[in-house]
Fold each of these.
Amino acid sequence: KNEVEQSPQNLTAQEGEFITINCSYSVGISALHWLQQHPGGGIVSLFMLSSGKKKHGRLIATINIQEKHSSLHITASHPRDSAVYICAVRSGGGADGLTFGKGTHLIIQP
Amino acid sequence: EPEVTQTPSHQVTQMGQEVILRCVPISNHLYFYWYRQILGQKVEFLVSFYNNEISEKSEIFDDQFSVERPDGSNFTLKIRSTKLEDSAMYFCASSGQLDTEAFFGQGTRLTVV
């Protein structure tokens, strides 16, 4: 069973700061997802990675398969980035669902 | 933009009653999932569904749970006899292929009283 750990659990930063959220997992995976959950509860997919790096706007996600580690970076952070960021992995095999981390609660202050 | 829709957004039910949570996945997707999130906890996998049958299920998905895709568009989760501990947010998700982007619905908040 894959164990997904995220750090930090909570992060408060000032607008404009560079943000890094980390995710590690214990067992090899076929894919890693970064998701965003707003206070209303809805979940939005940000990235799906199986190797390397992806960029979308101010968001960058990287993954190191050998080290079983991924990072989500936010450049020029803004209060609207305030949300819970969740790392989730699929361990492969059949159509297994995702195993989720506990999430990182990010608050960006103006 | 295509989206996954879930109904109802909030359901309150008496303990022991049956509930059906409904989802309309994205139309050309092949893989369908139900997840749940108990308040304050992480999201947990319940079941995956592919090719009109259950593909994988977690320990949580016991005999009181069932899923159906009755008409090729809707995807339902039935809880036969609800318990207080079934109170949670239930998310439906779909993806076009394995290991592609997952699209989540807005969730159904189930409260069992």
Amino acid sequence: DVVMTQSPLSLPVTLGQPASISCRSSQSLVYRNGNTYLNWFHQRPGQSPRRLIYEVSNRDSGVPDRFSGSGSGTDFTLRISRVEAEDVGVFYCMQGTKWPYTFGQGTKLEIK
Amino acid sequence: QVQLVQSGAEVKNPGTSVKVSCKASGYTFANYGISWFRQAPGQGLEWMGWINTKNGDTEFAQRVKGRFIMTTDLSTNTVYMELRSLASDDTAVYHCVRDWGAVTVIADHWGQGTPVTVSS
């Protein structure tokens, strides 16, 4: 299985400041069609996860442009340009390139 | 709009089975697959399996293979999952999620989740 490793696991951030989460995979996530199926999800307490970013860097509909994704191969990053109160929760990276889908451990963002 | 509506919470005894439904609306059902994920209390997310709603092809996580069944009903746009031989570590919230099929999309819309508690 592809192992996904996120860091940090805990992320205290001051409102309005930037934040960054790293996600590394144990194998390349480039699929045979050339696409890279690396997604980012956000889960607020008590809610279902919501997909924010698909295929490394594409924002889902309705996702604020302060969220951005980047990376390639085995190394990926989610950036929040200015953290807002609604960003509290857990962020997960997930690879959808190879069965079984696998997730990072999750990064818990809290407001300082 | 895309919606996945799951059946309600379940409490089961160890060794029994649970069946959860997931009714889809707002899109062409047969063009997408459905994956099932679960999340144990206080834990991360785990993918369990995927079904192609058009032809019934499936993929399973090794951990549940052999006791996890997925079926689809094209007449009602509903997918069912059944997990057998329940144990306490199957206690989790189970989510159905729209996933790839004829259209290549990965986990873009999630159901509200169905809590399953396994306890004697």
